[in-house]
Amino acid sequence: MSSREKTTVEVEGRELSLSNLDKELYPSFTKGEVIDYYARIAPVLLPHLAARPATRKRYPDGVDGGSFFEKNAPSHTPGWVRTVTIPTPGSSRGRDTLDFVVVNDLPTLVWLANLAALELHIPQWKVGPRGRLHSPDLLVFDLDPGEPATIAQAREVAFLLRDVLAASGLTAYVKTSGKKGLHLYVPVKESDRTSEYAKTAAQRLAEEHPALVVAKMERKLRKGKVFVDWSQNNPAKTTVAPYSLRAAPAASVSTPVTWDELEAASTLADLTFSPADVLARVGKDGDLLAPLLEEHTAAVP
Predict the structure, then answer these.
(1) Which tens digit of pLDDT belongs to each residue from 99-144?
(2) Which end of the chain is less crowded, N or C, counting CB atoms within 10 A of the terminal residue's CB?
(3) How far is it, in rounded angstroms, from Cα 33 to Cα 188?
(4) How far apart are CA 35 and CA 37, in angstroms?
(5) Residue 120 contacts residue 41 (beta carbons within 8 Å)
(6) How far apart (Å, rounded) are the C-alpha atoms in residues 127 and 125?
(7) How far is CA 135 from CA 45, 194, 233, in A?
(8) Distance CA 135, CA 122 (A)
(9) 3-state per-residue secondary structure call for the chain
């Protein structure tokens, strides 16, 4: 089939028109393979996306072309796709609200993959069935090493942060960012204090380990240190979803890992996973972030 041809498929009773399936969105990884990955990873991905408004990062011309973040549902969004109207004060588009897509099912996921939405980013809070915005039920920390620091230093900070969180009665789970960093997640009871607590924890680490950790946003401060980005707990911010593809020179995935795996890793290659790697890992071990989906009993201090 040529890249200009379209094919119609039925996904869970929804008819979808897919196009340009042989177009390379990554070197040696086509749009058809992107769609196939998302369809196959859906059983573990969709529960993490459910009820969370999705910001999509689209790469119509592949990772070597231009990209754009898309929050508002496009005008051609099918009527069966769930959208939810969210206040967006200070929007760059000058709008007070935007209609976000909520990826609750496989047809929606495949539809987005066909739009070259390689990356799926979600907030730490959910929307109810009638559109009510809930308070955050996840804490997240993005550990971003500034050159010449590497993921080895990020790994060290992850264990330090895990101990800080444990002292507060909180259990942390870890995934790769899919690039050079790590993400720590903590399931908590709904709270409006997650951002405040995350900032305090990051600042504490920076004070106790000033040669290794920085908690301030200024890029000039990050050289050779690991930036503990607590700001993604702001309700207006999002983090790339577990199992989402990332735009990188080769197709990579934001991948849940165990603490034992993290301890054994020493290089970025040890913590870089392709779509095929991730599908094999899930087939063997299931969803390592399944505890994020269970009832959250820990309270933010």
Answers:
(1) 999 999 999 999 999 999 999 999 999 999 999 999 999 999 999 9
(2) N
(3) 35
(4) 5
(5) no
(6) 7
(7) 22, 9, 11
(8) 14
(9) CCCCCEEEEEECCEEEEEECCCCEEECCEEHHHHHHHHHHHHHHHHHHHCCCEEEEEECCCCCCCCCEEECECCCCCCCCCCEEEEECCCCCCCCCEEEEEECCCHHHHHHHHHCCEEEEEECCCCECCCCCECCCCEEEEEEEEECCCCHHHHHHHHHHHHHHHHHCCCCCEEEECCCCCEEEEEECCCCCCHHHHHHHHHHHHHHHCCCCEECCCCHHHCECCEEEECHHHCCCCCEECCCCEECCCCCEECCEECHHHHHHCCCHHHHCCCHHHHHHHHHHHCCCCHHHHCCCCCCCC
Whose structure tokens read 């508002």?
72
Do residues 112 and 101 touch, judged by C-beta distance below 8 A?
A: yes
| Residues pairing with 121 in the sheet | 55, 240
- Report the C-alpha gap between 138 and 221 in whole angstroms: 27
For residue 79, CA distances in Å to 74, 82, 122, 287 come to: 11, 8, 22, 31
The per-residue pLDDT for range 241-273, each reduced to its tens digit, is 999 999 999 999 999 999 999 999 989 999 999
Using CB atoms within 10 A of its CB, is residue 75 exposed (0-12), middle (13-18) or buried (19+)? exposed
Partners of 57 in the β-ladder: 69, 119
Amino acid, single-letter form, for residue 63: V
CATH numbers and ranges of domains, the chain: 6-122 (3.90.920.10), 138-293 (3.30.70.3300)
